[in-house]
Amino acid sequence: MAGMTITEKIFAAHCGREEVHAGEFVRASLDIVLASDITGPLAIEKFREVGAQRVFDRSRVCLIPDHYTPNKDIKSAEQCRVLREFAREQEVEHYWEVGRVGIMHALLPEQGVVVPGDLVIGADSHTCTYGALGAFSTGVGSTELGCAMATGDTWFMVPSTLRFVFHGELRPYVGGKDLILFTIGQIGVDGALYKAMEFCGETIRRLPMADRLTMCNMAIEAGAKCGIIEPDDVTRAYVAPRAEREPRYYTSDPDAQYERTYEWDVSELEPQVAFPHLPSNTKPISEARGVPIDQCVVGSCTNGRIEDLRAAAEVLRGRRVHPRVRAIIIPATQEVYRQALREGLVDIFLDAGCAVSTPTCGPCLGGHMGVLARGERAIATTNRNFVGRMGHPESEVYLSNPAVAAASAVAGEIASPEDLD
Amino acid sequence: MAGTAHKYGDNVDTDVIIPARYLVTSDPDELAAHCMEDIDPEFVRRVKPGDVLVAGKNFGCGSSREHAPIAIKACGISCVIAKTFARIFFRNAINIGLPILIAPEAVEGIEAGDQVSVDLASGTIVNETRGTRFSAAPFPEFMLEIIRAGGLVPYTRARLARGDVQRGGR
Predict the structure, then answer these.
(1) Complex ipTM, two decimals?
(2) A contact test, residue of B156, B160, B162, B164 with most A CBs within 10 A
């Protein structure tokens, strides 16, 4: 028996085999199948088209209205209605209404809906987020999702794995967002095409779960099939109080086959900023300073957790947002929002002159809650900065971690927290 | 399957396969009329049902639109043989029932105009013109069924009709 990667082991477990290896085609059973208000309606159409009556398991299908909610406009309201009515008809357990809902890739780990060892597909490209829990998780199209809601399985080509080993202790203001931006900058937006990106090394072992979720969230921006981090004590501690189901913990064998290994010492790594118009167009903060900005967004499935809000609040405490800048803070879930209130973070944000929003994906994809006009620039803790991503095709988006975004909001231009007095 | 080979290079992207200006329709025949138009305007006139498309690396890169494999299939192309496929195109092709094979040596050994026959079940590619034979790793039976059924939707419909699915706890 040849060694397997964690990804190969999860596939083996989900197709009833002792062993599978990269390149094989398998039919795997699914633990969780998810869709949003913008991808759900088409998936539901396909579900009907194949003649399905009931979803394969009403505790495993998750329908989350997070993208264009609270209803952005009439069309979005109608999409949400389709999702809501289907959830009701099918008695879907994991449906959250506005006022309870959060951004899905923050909500599902927080609520223990996805657990280590799971195999997850979602009609959303950032479904790769759950790899941080030691699950295999990937984005698919609506048609495929609709069929999977009926059958509870789908086909895969088992991906080969690229291993990324990180060494060294991170400097202040450097975290998971900077590690993943740095990685994408090194390998390019197609540098991990069809592969599993496995993040490991002592730097990763020391990373809190929030930063691990951030890293795996952006694996798709390198073209990857998934991001994944072997579970350890950090994972167990995170999962123990919340898991809805029994977790299964897999690790990669010492003799597992990797297609390629990248190894980096990141002890000198600076905060990273991705310049327009690719997530791979990264520069260290020392080369990014000085670009004037109009808007700052702290939020999204990438960086909308309590840890991210704390990092932003630490920079904004006792300071004011620059007169020219709109700073928008979006807690990713209601629990994050409540925790931010309890810790006095919302007071810090309001005192600084920020807008604080209910959970939504909103501005990340140029939907609502902070769209950009022609010629405007935003610095955002989101995950994509392609042309027109946050609004007008002639606007620009710079990606960063929350501390840099907050510092830039104060300075009125891209800045490091260390630049502020 | 047998037909004439139409050969292209590396990184043939989805905008080349079906230009975005034609994405106002999902009708396969309308899409077919513009397949490969921006790099080979003669393709749609030359191509005959049963022909084979042969390409280099990263075929189908770019967008996730299903229109790209739909256009190729609607032209009558019976199989796309490439050195490698872009991830989403690969998945979309299977899911709409367009036969594809990963076969770098076959791509090297086929020139435009050669007569090529393909047996999808065994993964065998024969260059009838040059008398050479190549092997691609064949798909497992359940995937051949998806392709034969015409894609994931008709395949899933048939599975549900014969009760061939696992049910979950509830």
Answers:
(1) 0.88
(2) B156
